[in-house]
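Question (not urgent): is this output format expected?
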Amino acid sequence: MALDSFYRSPPTLESISLRLRDIVGCSELFRLSSAGDSVLGRPLWYLLAGDFSAPPVLLIGCTHGSEWITAMLLLLFAESLTDAVKHQGEIAGIRVEALFHGRSLLLLPCLNPDGMEISLYGSDAAGERRCQVARMMKDFPEQVWQANARGVDLNHNFPAGWEILRDLEKQDGILGPGPTKYGGPCPFSEPETQAVRKLCSDFPVRQVLSFHSQGEEIYWRYGSRTPGRGLMVARLFSASSGYQVCDPAGTASHGGLKDWFIQETGRPGFTLEVGKGKNPLPIEQLPEIWGKLKETLMLSILV
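Got this back:
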């Protein structure tokens, strides 16, 4: 599938919303719903496909505002699935027609729409919170915007090693809201992370893939409840993508979605750091990222 103009420029929430409606409108494969709203009331859209009685795989993008290229990746995956179903085609040599027999998929392309808009378009995108966001940007001028509209890093807001993470943040001089790394006043303090918790409660999610950038790495382990099959699946993802299986360090070691999901459920959870370079990655990297990960994305539903 040739990439059209939508995939050649950075997104807005409006353009993402319109694209999601187009995806649903051109195929019966997906249903569109919202997991809740962001701090500023923007919808947290997700797509649901497949056998709804089967435990789904959950794919989440754009947890960090500056990593909006992951939202584009998941939209491209959804659109490629609908196109392949329509034409009885394949993705990475895997026939899509039978992919969802006894399987299902939840796909939430943008967990942090406020942060995405702030990262791309500045403090004016923060609406009623523009003054607070502008002040945080002024206080941390060298930082790209990863946080939500309250200056909370959503991938530090999950209850997994919370106290350890808070100490690590303090060691790094992170004492309050800002563009990155502040985990909030308490776990699940933010509506975006609460929405993920509810989604995982409403559906018996069997594994989670959380997409970030950058580094071409796969993280699979967290604590004593890490399932044995997690390493096997991570190695399979590595073989299909060329990404390296490894462990995060420092403040990336706790408080994340993958960490909480493994700790809470004992089921596989993964963080995939897509692309290489400096965030925000340029949109021109999307075709290469898609080329490396399209088989991995298909395997995430199959295994």
